[in-house]
Design goal:
alpha+beta; 60s Ribosomal Protein L30, Chain: A; 3 domains; six-stranded mixed sheet; five-stranded mixed sheet; 16 strands; 30% strand
Length: 319
Amino acid sequence: MRHWRLAALGTLIVASALPAKKKNPDDVTQTLDLPKDPPMVAIAETSRLVFHVSPLSAKGLLSQQTRDALKAVLKLSGNLPVVHIRAFVAGSGDPRRVPQIISEAFREKKLELPSVSVIQAGALQMEGAQVALETVSVAKKEVNSDGLAWVEAQTALSLEKSIDAVAMRLGSAPALRVSCFVSAVTPGQAGAVAARFPSAAVDIVQPQREAARTEVSCEAVGRGGSIRAPKLAFTGTRVAFGSDDKAAALAFQRLGKDLTEAGAGLPEVLAMNVYSLSGRAAELARKVRGTGPPITAIPFEGVASVEGSFAVDAIATVK
């Protein structure tokens, strides 16, 4: 027994004399940073703004389609910095995931985050497509020396009449982007718009799965117009959580605060879009907003909150 104790003591002494084993860095649990939320407002020089629409894809689920759309639209623009993204999400995908997916993708590429507007639509032009991205990017040099023109949605009973109204409002200014919201997507619609506006990026969206009325509303931005402010501010969507005046007013107050902190404000708004869940919600938004620039209010399938009655975003001049 005595010999056994001496042997054990010797082993302990030898073990304590050995150098401590270094920790393997792989053994340490690493905590990854959470993706940052996109900014509520992004600012860019008016004279350098360019506009694109991502090509549609039916491959994969919403996450893959969003990443593929981002990759494609960045390639289209020559990897120019993106200042704003408006995402129309169709199908069963959760639109609340889109800002996070965009944030992750931009972080991987070490790019500045754009402001993001997210709206749930009824359908897109390709069966199985779940997302369409409209981007506003910043060119390396001046491309809009004669200013820009924003045309709010022109509502008509047919696509042809709606784009006629847009063309009349644009005058001689070439269209840079035309977005048409149709009661039902049909083959040839994008081609008809592209034929009328050959220099424009074209987006065709069916706002609701089952539209209450048969009509078309097209909006556009053109090169050459009255918008000559040095810089423009683009906001993400603010949601009205409720269907009463108080909820609507709070959404506009938050939007106004976002703009004020960015050096603009509600009085400087040039264009405002209301994405409502019903005609009643659209009228509520118009009533609460009161005077100001024309509001484009179109009923959509949903917004990025199950409790929302409408979402609103805006474009404003920076003081």
